[in-house]
Amino acid sequence: MDTPSTYPWQILDTGSVWMKEFASALSKVEPVAAWAPTMQWLGMFRNWQATEVLPAPPLTMLRFPLQRGYARTPLRWIAPYQAGMIRRMKSQTADPAESPLVCSTPYYAPVAELWPGPVIYYVTDLTIEYNGLDKAQVRSLDRRMCRVARAVCPNSRRIANYLMTEAQCDPGKITIIPNATRASNVPPSPRYEPAELPADARDLPRPIAGVLGDLSENMDWELIVAAIQRTPQFNWLFVGPPDRPIANQAQRAARAQAIQMSRFVGMKPYGELQAYARCVDVAVLPYRKKEPTYSGSSTRFYEHLAAGRPMVATRGFAELLEKEPLLTLVDTADEMAAALEHLRSLDFRDGHEAERWEASKQGTWEERARAMRATIQPRHEAEVKDASVAVGST
Question: Does residue 2 belong to any structural domain of this protein?
């Protein structure tokens, strides 16, 4: 598929930030029908459809109503949604058999089984590990998706292993496609100095340790507080929502303590995160080892990769265990404080700036879109293929 196809790729769905970014990148090389459900309690009785044009990332989405709880018993039997979804998608293409369908959740298995064109299962989370879900149902749906899909694209090796061992996925269908950053975030040459601080952090004295992303349960807040206490020479900057629920009381209390000790600037649009990633002296990725985070792909790693600043991360994300020397891995607050102080002694130049830049050129949503396009070309090998190898090491 060296040239764009005539028929659109159907993306089901573009509800999450990373799916919007992926769909936008794919739309640069293929026509795309980007579906975005609006969950409604009476969705089964509604039949509207609306177009929404996003400026950033540039993407035209097709919104439609979907019954809240559509995948749960008894609603999945009382109000099956798949026939209506098939009709909607067929209305967007002259030849459904030539229109690829990308499904981003196992709950779309009933749609995938009815779609006449090639199906790609894009697995961005280890869904079976989410709290409150029926694990047996998720496993069954994953098996159905793996059977019907021509290509299966998990975003980590751990998810690929689950799909092969528990969802009975044919290894020959699998291409690992990690998360990414926008190509526009990658600079024309390596960065060696931090950028100017945004207005809401401009008064912070350097050095600055920065934490970006979802500031909730996937962060080890007890370790963070201990690290802050051990690094009085640093100012800590947190970018993300500071009020999302944390079930663990000790972690919740630690986040409240961290808020009192640091600068929290709140949630920012995805497109603005790069400005914060570039401005810090050192990026900190203090993940708490828990599922499903541990088995996923770290979007913030690819943001920091493009920003070029040195990184210190915990071993709470399996994907990051393979990323040294692009970052420094630590296990404890003492180790984190020592790593930060070592970087300060080097004026925050760890000698891997050019390597991070080279890796960031391959870790973009545009490269991920090209890797997925290649999955529905004829397959000649029967082993798991890693997109990071196909498009360059990330």
Answer: no
Q: Which domain holds residue 250?
A: 186-359
**Residues 115 and 340: beta-carbon distance below 8 Å:** no
| Sign of the dihedral defined by the CA atoms of residues 5, 6, 12, 17, in that order | positive
Which residues share a beta bridge with 10?
A: 33, 101
Residue 3 within a domain:
no
Pure H helices in the chain: 17-27, 75-78, 82-90, 109-114, 135-148, 157-165, 221-230, 249-261, 273-279, 299-307, 333-345, 353-362, 365-375, 387-390
> Facing residues of 285 across strands?
313
Residue 6 and residue 96: Cα distance in Å, rounded?
11
Note whether residue 200 is domain-resident.
yes
Q: How far apart are CA 297 and CA 328, in angstroms?
A: 17
If you ran DSSP here, which 8-state letter would residue 223 be given? H
Under a CB-based contact definition with an 8 Å cutoff, are residues 277 and 303 in contact?
Answer: yes
Measured distance CA(238)–CA(244) in Å, rounded: 14
Name residue 152's beta-bridge partners: 121, 174
- Asked whether residue 151 falls in the same domain as residue 21, the answer is yes
> Would you say 1 and 89 are in contact if contact means Cβ atoms under 8 Å apart?
no
pLDDT digits (tens, 9 = 90+) for 207-259: 999 999 999 999 999 999 999 999 999 999 999 999 999 999 999 999 999 99
Tokens read off for 265 = 């600037």
Q: Are 236 and 228 in contact (CB under 8 A)?
A: yes
Laid out side by side, the sheet with 58-67 consists of 50-55, 58-67, 32-40, 9-12, 101-103, 119-123, 151-154
Q: Beta partners for 97? A: none
Contacts (Cβ under 8 Å, ≥6 apart) of 390: 175, 371, 374
Instruction: Extract the tokens encoding 331.
Output: 């296990």
Distance of CA 381 to the CA centre of its chain: 27
Calpha distance 192→350 (Å, rounded)? 10
Q: pTM, whole model, 2 decimals?
A: 0.92
Hey, what amino acid is at 91?
Answer: S
- Tens of pLDDT, residues 172-213: 999 999 999 999 999 999 999 999 999 999 999 999 999 999
User: Considering only CA atoms, which of 175, 176, 178 is closest in space to residue 379?
Assistant: 175
Instruction: Indicate which CATH number applies to the domain containing 91.
Output: 3.40.50.2000
- Report how many domains make up the chain: 2
